[in-house]
Amino acid sequence: MPIHVAVLQREYLRMILAGQKTVESRLAKVRCPPFGAVTAGERLFFKASGGSFMATALADEVHDHAHQTPTQLDALRTRWNPAVCGTDEYWNQRRDRPFATFIRLRGVEPLDCGPRYKTQNMRAWYTLTDTANPLLDIKLRRGAYKNRYVQLPQASEAMRAAAFSLELPDGNIVETDLVPGSTRVRWRGWKRYFDAFGLRPGDTIRFVALGDRRYRVLFRRTA
Question: Cα(95)–Cα(205) distance, rounded to whole angstroms?
Answer without folding.
Answer: 44
